[in-house]
Amino acid sequence: MQATLQKIHEDSVPASIDAPLSFKPFLRYLKERLKTERTVKSEYYRFVIERFEKEQAWNLPISPDDIARYRELLEIVYFVLTPLATDEKEFFWGLSTPIPGSLIFSTSRLSQFLADKNTMIHQQPINGNKSCGRQEVQFIYRLILERFYGIATSARKELIFEHKDTTTNLLKFYQVQVDTQFIDIRVKSTLPELKFDTLSPYLHDGDGTEAMVCMLQQMLPLENFEVEGFSIVTLRDITQPYALDKIREVIANHLYSNEKYRIIGQALKTMAGHEHIEFRLVPMVGVNGKAVFVNKEESIQSVLILAAQKSGIEGEVFNALVSAYQKNPRVIVLNKIQSEASSTERIVPMLKVAGLTSFALLPVYYHHELTGVLEIFSRKDVLFDERLFSKVQDAVPLIAQLLKYSREAFQSTINNIIRDKFTPLQPAVQWKFNEAAWKHLQEHGNDVKSAEIETIRFDNIYPLYGAVDIRNSTIERNRAIQEDIRFQLTLLTETLRKLKNSGNLPATQALAFECEQWFAQIESYMTTKDEITLNHFLEQEVNPYLRHAHREVPSARPLIDAYFDALNEQEGDAFKNRRELETSLQYINKKLNHYFDNAQKELQAVYPFYFEKFRTDGIEYDIYIGQSIGHDKVFDIAYLKRLRKWQLQSMAEVARLTQQLTPAMPRPLQTTQLIFAHAHRIDITFRNDERRFDVEGAYNIRYEMIKKRIDKVLIRDTGERLTQPGKIALVYLNTLEAQEYIEYIGELQQQGLLDDSLEFLELEEVQGVSRLKALRVGVKYI
Using CB atoms within 10 A of its CB, is residue 396 exposed (0-12), middle (13-18) or buried (19+)? Predict the structure, then answer.
């Protein structure tokens, strides 16, 4: 034991508070224990108390410089407070000044540890030059808040030492822990009131500790307090949790470069506690279902890949090994590789050539999906066993998460390349992107990947919007589902009735009765909740019962097979109506896509414009035209008028087209045609994140908002939907916008495309948009 004054860390600075060493709190503790102690310990406590009280200065402040005079008393404290069998040569334990800055008595293990040149502070206790940032000041205020106000604070600025182990040549980490039970604090004057609400923002925020202490120094000056006693200092080995925290830090900071592998490999080596064991993480990434290793820097992390390269293994052969492993992932542990005469493992010859003596391959899963492998290897004689694997087991879930992120990052890179290289730009706007790219290259040179490219925008352009929608598509879909379910329940009821006579199947009657009840329920009305409940009944009760009957009653198998054949989504009768509906929808959309693609290509030859269509249950499209898109071709309002007239004409032709398709559709469907007339120019910006144009500015966004809300608008005071099959609806805000279209309607009526039923309609308010009006006119079918 060492009874000398020794600083715990060189940056320790005494706080401005009277804090002498004293045995008084310790003696009071023993006397309290003596009152309740009924074992032989009571005699020991009496002896200790008598020995201390014989010392004249036991109840007086003790100067740290005189601590050697009290060595015997300090040894008694050590014997009282530590287990009898403790070996002080292995135990990190010591007594310090009340505010733990210097040791006054310690085990030889702790004293030697602090004096060792391989030991250094890992986390500096002083932050900047603020007095309120010193660890000693924070320590006192935490104690004051706890003792006088019952407020516990977060102590995140623990003192941590790192120590290089000369045996393993690896760093180990130790946390300083302080026991304050033998410290007394007294207030010299009246204790001020302190409200919890004032401190609450700082209590559990490690970054707010200094701000809180600075505030407390104003409210609770340390000069108003007295401290005496001593602290007990111990060190706790936190090497394992520290290494885990390093891995968590990589994940939390989104450190997904190749540096992550080095950091995590070192953390795993620290956890294993052996300098000759190495770790590698290999994410399982692939293209079109095949494993690939395209990033040279990243694949170099895999010792198995390096071994294959050294052995001259062909890429196809190695990929076949990887594919076989992916199909059957398993733990592989190989020891004494160099002396291995023969092995069933095909990777052993590679590992020999690479100079490995031990190798282990552990599959890593994230939510039951193989995300990669953990390679463990050594070129020295190290035995890989369960003890090694147990040391790193706590890190496996974190490794799984990291490998998952690596896979996602790889896939994101692939997707970015596809979007970057293959997303087509329309010729009408290609020139703008070419200019921006050239400017970007001139300004940033080789840094084009990381530098921000300018925003692509077109100002003062005219928008045109149109939509062709399938009438009552939701109703048609629900009807198809209901009809298919009705057929399935009918078939199921018949199947169960026939099963009653096929064998000893007592539950058949009950299931048949429940099917009849379901049939009656869906005949009236079927909600989404009903559909979910019914599917649960069929999948969890009916299907397992029928499979059981299929096994137990051979004669019933044809009957049961016929039922399950009907449930085949591609060919079964229980999905017939849904398949027919989907076929009809696809048929209409295919024709509409073909029509609009051909039409806009012809119009582009007149004047360039941006055309974008969206797939819904039908087709929606946006058109933007104006001088800023036309570039060096002069824009004239006549081009806009031509497009507007085409809008009306195309809607009439589309209505005719879909009406002609009706006989060829398995389930006849009708379409509605809608146009939004907007006379004012807007600005649009290309959104790099979504690879599409979007409107810019508050006024322009209002246009976008109206456009998205008029598909189900009602005619005022009628409850009637504006959009109707066989008609074209044109929504506008003021009469001037409609006048141009009225002229085009007249021309199309003369051409026989539209009938004479032109209506002028007032519309109901839609989500804050009022005063909407509409024209509606019928299409004349041939």
Answer: middle
Q: Report pTM.
A: 0.52
| pLDDT at site 190 | 86
Identity of the amino acid at 605: A
Token look-up 């008694």 returns 76
Claim to verify: residue 201 and residue 288 sit in the same structural domain: no
The CA distance from 618 to 7, in Å, is: 79
Q: Which residue's structure tokens are 């929608």?
A: 469
- Please give the pLDDT value at position 693: 77
Q: Which of 218, 237, 256 is the last residue of a domain?
A: 237
Q: Is the pLDDT of residue 328 over 60?
A: yes
CATH number at residue 292: 3.30.450.40
With the C-alpha atoms ordered 574, 578, 579, 584, is the resulting torsion angle positive or negative? positive
Question: Do 210 and 248 belong together in one domain?
Answer: no
Same domain membership, residue 763 and residue 639: yes
C-alpha to C-alpha distance for 466 and 621, rounded to whole angstroms: 6
Q: Which two tokens stand for residue 524?
A: 């009236």
Q: What percent of the chain has pLDDT over 70?
A: 86
Share of the chain above pLDDT 90, in %: 35
**231 and 246 co-located in one domain:** no
Q: Which residue has the tokens 């005494």?
A: 14
- Burial of residue 304 (CB within 10 Å: 0-12, 13-18, 19+) is buried
Lowest-confidence segment of 212-221, 688-697, 755-764 by average pLDDT: 688-697
In a domain, 429, yes or no: no
Structural domain ending residue among the three candidates 237, 257, 292: 237
Cβ(658)–Cβ(617) under 8 Å? no
Give the SS3 label for residue 164. strand
Write out the residue range of the structural domain in which residue 491 sits.
473-576
Distance of CA 438 to the CA centre of its chain: 36
pLDDT digits (tens, 9 = 90+) for 671-719: 999 999 988 888 888 776 666 677 776 667 778 888 888 888 999 999 9
CB 71 within 8 A of CB 3: yes
For residue 167, which amino acid is it?
Answer: T
- Domain count across the chain: 4
Residue 328 identity (one-letter amino acid): N
315 within some domain: yes
CB-CB neighbours of 31 under 10 Å: 12
Most confident option among 128-142, 186-200, 282-296, 708-722: 708-722
pLDDT tens digits along 463-494: 999 999 998 888 888 889 889 998 989 999 88
Residue 286 lies in a domain: yes
Residues 232 and 248 placed together within one structural domain of the fold: no
Secondary structure of residue 619 in the 3-state scheme: strand
In this structure, the answer to whether residues 633 and 774 fall within a common structural domain is yes
The pLDDT value given to residue 462:
94
Q: What is the mean pLDDT of residues 109-116?
A: 91
Alpha carbons 388 and 691: distance in angstroms, whole number: 50
Same domain, 625 and 671: yes
| 81 domain-assigned | yes
Tell me, yes or no, whether 598 and 486 share the same domain: no
Which element (helix H / strand E) includes 120?
A: strand 119-121
Query: Rounded to whole angstroms, how far apart are CA atoms 344 and 765?
Result: 77
Mean pLDDT calculated for residue range 562-589: 92
Per-residue H/E/C for 297-310:
HHHCCCHHHHHHHH
CA 49/CA 46 separation, integer angstroms: 5
Contact yes or no for 168/179 (Cβ under 8 A): no
Cβ atoms of residues 709 and 766 within 8 Å: yes
Quick one: pLDDT at residue 132?
61
